[in-house]
Amino acid sequence: MTRPDASGLAALRPRLPSPLQEVADDRFTRRGVRLLLKRDDLIHPELVGNKWRKLAPNLTAAAGRTVVTFGGAYSNHLRATAAAGRLLGLPTIGIVRGQELADRPLNPSLARCVADGMRLRFVDRTTYRRKDEAEILAELLRAAGAEGAYVVPEGGSNALAVRGCRALGEELRGRADVIALACGTGGTLAGLAAGLAPGQRALGIPVLKGGFLSADIARIQEQAFGERRGDWALEDRFHFGGYGRTTADLDAFAEDFEGRHGVAVERLYVAKLLYGLVALVEERAFEEGDAVVAVVTGAPFAG
User: Is the pLDDT of residue 51 over 50?
Assistant: First the structure.
């Protein structure tokens, strides 16, 4: 069995640092604001964007053990972990939210996980909410036959992942005034902000509603760095109803952006980020002369 280390992961040929692409968008230029895209979607064709940055240090730490992780029915993180397992020869198990899904045909996202060798286990939503409790986690691992496995949390956001995402901020030092990205669990923002230079600020656009993410980001920065790091804030208005939800307006916006710039726009995260930035620039939330980077953290799922 492969025991991935830093050199083993390098053999997967990640494109790092990822490209920084300036786009001419009149909605920004008429306000005197530059828009740049940090193309983390081009890091690796299967471990896309922040999934590479978060998974790479965890796969090294797994050191050949089975990797167990968590996600919903359309989780990008589950797909990335399954792909990593196939590429590196690591067994993977995905614990999926929703026992009812066990009796339904697999959707394309979960079918891809299975095709990549991931074993899926479906659990009821009440148990899933308690998955971080030691007793519940131990029982889930026993039921999966995975005692001794390496556990990666939902979304991949632990202290190792956050430290891995610090490189994203370091790659953008001195390149922009504001760096914005869509947030699920907040781990990427936590690391990004820690890597930025003084005077730069990070802006997170949560894709879940609830207003709980600030405390989570502060907590995971404490775990990763021992303190809160960087200048960061959240803008909670652009979740479009919550995780996994889109609207006709958001789809139309994404299609228009694709037509303007020739960049495929992932709907659940990246479209909400870009929509939010267009709204914010119209509200004059940025100063004339500002350079704003939108981090493209994912690519559309091809099915």
Answer: yes
Q: What is the DSSP string of 36-54?
A: EEE-GGGS-SSS-THHHHH
Closest to 100 (Cα-Cα) out of 79, 72, 129, 119 = 72
Domain ranges of the chain: 6-46+157-295, 66-148
- 257's enclosing H/E stretch is helix 248-261
Say how far apart CA 50 and CA 64 lie, in whole Å. 22
Closest CA to 281 of 29, 106, 3, 78: 29
- Using one digit for the tens of pLDDT, what is the confidence trace for 163-187? 999 999 999 999 999 999 999 999 9
- Give yes or no for a contact between 97 and 73, defined as CB atoms under 8 angstroms apart: yes
CATH placement of domain 6-46+157-295 = 3.40.50.1100
Using DSSP, state whether 232 is helix, strand or coil. strand
* Phi, then psi, of 147 in degrees rounded to 5: -60, 140
CA dihedral 183, 95, 226, 236 (to 10 degrees): 20
Question: Class of the 66-148 domain?
Answer: alpha beta
Which residues, including other chains, have CB under 8 Å from residue 180's CB and lie 6 or more apart? 202, 203, 204, 205, 273, 276, 277, 292, 293, 294, 295
Comparing 211 with 275, the larger pLDDT belongs to 275
The tokens describing 31, both together, are 């306000």
| Burial call 96-110: b when 16+ CB within 10 Å, e when fewer | bbeeebeeeebeebb
